[in-house]
Design a protein that fits this description.
Elements: H1 5-30, H2 42-60, H3 67-85, H4 88-100
Length: 104
């Protein structure tokens, strides 16, 4: 029994997708937690946000993502998250100042 060309293409696409997902899961489980770059103050946090967001943007702009690209995105998120957390107290204070000033 022969498969049609479109059935064969679908089967190959599904096989490639499952292979990619499996590879990503294995790599992610091997490196499930990355050490973030420290953001001890706002200047460091801003520098880290700028630098690592540019790296993330470069990966995002690729036409094809590899498994290693996906792992790199995972790694970058730890540093970006830590840097973004540095701004939470500042934004809360600014919201309080705006509320006290009667801003909408």
């Amino acid at each position: 029994m022969f498969m049609s060309l479109s059935t064969l293409r679908r089967l190959l696409l599904i096989t490639a997708a499952v292979s990619t997902i499996t590879s990503t899961a294995v790599l992610a489980s091997e490196s499930s937690h990355f050490e973030p770059v420290a953001s001890p103050d706002l200047a460091s946090a801003l520098c880290n946000l700028t630098t690592y967001n540019a790296e993330l943007s470069a990966i995002k702009d690729k036409t094809e993502l590899t498994t290693l690209d996906m792992v790199k995105v995972h790694e970058l998120t730890y540093t970006l998250e830590q840097a973004a957390r540095c701004f939470h107290p500042v934004t809360r204070r600014l919201a309080g100042v705006a509320a006290d000033a009667g801003a909408p």
